[in-house]
């Protein structure tokens, strides 16, 4: 039975009375000025572990945030039960503005970008010198993502007892990237952790690397078991205590002020989201030379002003080569 005619208007619609009163709906949301500040340590199936006043608190995202997702490293505002006791749940009502963002896509054809870590100061790219062999294309892609997201790169080379680092250092020497070389024995004994820790003090560092390079061993050396207890919470959904490499996890750095952010192992690093024009910011010695470039210059075309800038002696030609190699990385699939 049709209740309304074919041509209805708003006056014809039956208005149901509001049993709880006549207060109209509003789009104005509460400001939550009394909300506590926290940092997201890990995300697991819609439950977020946040650090609030040195206390781990399990929280969920408020509905009013819509599709906006919080990721590891985010600074957030929380309300509700902040005691951190078992079976309690707080609510994230605000995600503060991010200082930096590490993003990736599944591949270069995927339009959906994934935020891996927020507010990290640097990206530690862990690569083995042998077993498995280094993958320079993957390193290049991680560098581009770091420069684009506002992170300072750090190259950590492991297993120097199996192969020397000279060839890899020569490849990245012109980029002026800080680096640490470690051996398998040093990783197992923990001796490598001290040298790496010098580069991490006072910073939040995200670690990235593919399987077998020794990333997990290094992270465990930097964050001993007694420090991992801070985030060793019981899973709110399954009821089991666990941490797998399927999600990022922020851990307090042992022996210094700072954070170690362990990320899942990567097989590829898509750059579909990268704007090539932002990569030039990582080359301050070349950036002034782009003033004469044509609009929307890719910095790798015949009319690029950087060729004349470098030819006049304002910068090292090797630096221009490094820039163009990284820019070409977005168009060249990892492994090609």
Describe what this molecule looks like in 3D:
By secondary structure, this protein is of the alpha/beta class. The chain is 20% helix and 22% strand. The chain has 8 helices and 13 strands. The protein has helices spanning 136-149, 166-172, 184-189, 191-200, 215-222, 225-228, 306-311, 317-329; strands at 36-44, 47-52, 55-61, 75-80, 90-95, 101-104, 114-118, 122-128, 152-158, 179-181, 204-208, 249-252, 259-262. The strands form 3 sheets. A 6-stranded mixed β-sheet has the order 10-9-8-11-13-12. A 5-stranded mixed β-barrel has the order 1-2-3-5-4. Helix 1 links the parallel strand 8 (122-128) and strand 9 (152-158). The radius of gyration is 25 Å and the shape is globular.
At a glance:
The chain has helices at about 135-150, 165-170, 185-190, 190-200, 215-220, 225-230, 305-310, 315-330, and strands at about 35-45, 45-50, 55-60, 75-80, 90-95, 100-105, 115-120, 120-130, 150-160, 180, 205-210, 250, 260. By secondary structure, the chain is of the alpha/beta class.
């Amino acid at each position: 039975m049709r209740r309304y005619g074919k041509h209805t208007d708003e006056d014809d619609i039956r208005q149901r009375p509001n049993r709880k009163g006549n207060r109209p709906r509003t789009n104005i949301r509460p400001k939550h000025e009394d909300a506590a500040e926290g940092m997201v340590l890990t995300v697991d199936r819609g439950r977020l572990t946040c650090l609030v006043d040195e206390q781990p608190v399990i929280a969920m995202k408020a509905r009013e945030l819509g599709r906006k997702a919080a990721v590891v490293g985010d600074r957030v505002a929380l309300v509700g039960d902040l005691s951190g006791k078992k079976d309690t749940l707080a609510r994230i009502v605000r995600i503060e503005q991010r200082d930096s963002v590490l993003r990736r896509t599944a591949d270069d054809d995927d339009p959906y970008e994934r935020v891996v870590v927020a507010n990290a100061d640097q990206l530690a790219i862990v690569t083995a010198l042998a077993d498995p062999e280094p993958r320079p294309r993957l390193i290049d892609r991680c560098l581009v993502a770091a420069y684009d997201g506002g992170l300072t790169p750090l190259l950590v080379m492991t297993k120097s007892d199996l192969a020397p680092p000279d060839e890899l250092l020569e490849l990245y020497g012109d980029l002026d990237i800080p680096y640490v070389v470690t051996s398998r024995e040093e990783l197992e004994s923990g001796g490598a952790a001290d040298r790496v820790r010098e580069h991490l003090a006072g910073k939040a560092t995200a670690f990235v690397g593919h399987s077998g390079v020794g990333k997990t061993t290094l992270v465990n050396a930097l964050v001993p078991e007694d420090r991992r207890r801070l985030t060793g919470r019981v899973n709110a959904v399954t009821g089991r205590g666990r941490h797998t490499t399927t999600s990022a996890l922020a851990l307090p750095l042992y022996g210094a002020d700072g954070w170690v952010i362990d990320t899942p192992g990567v097989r590829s690093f898509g750059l579909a989201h990268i704007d090539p024009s932002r990569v030039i910011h990582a080359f301050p010695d070349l950036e002034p030379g782009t003033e004469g470039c044509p609009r929307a210059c890719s910095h790798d075309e015949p009319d690029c002003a950087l060729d004349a800038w470098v030819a006049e002696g304002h910068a090292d030609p090797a630096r221009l080569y490094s820039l163009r190699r990284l820019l070409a990385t977005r168009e060249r699939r990892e492994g090609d």
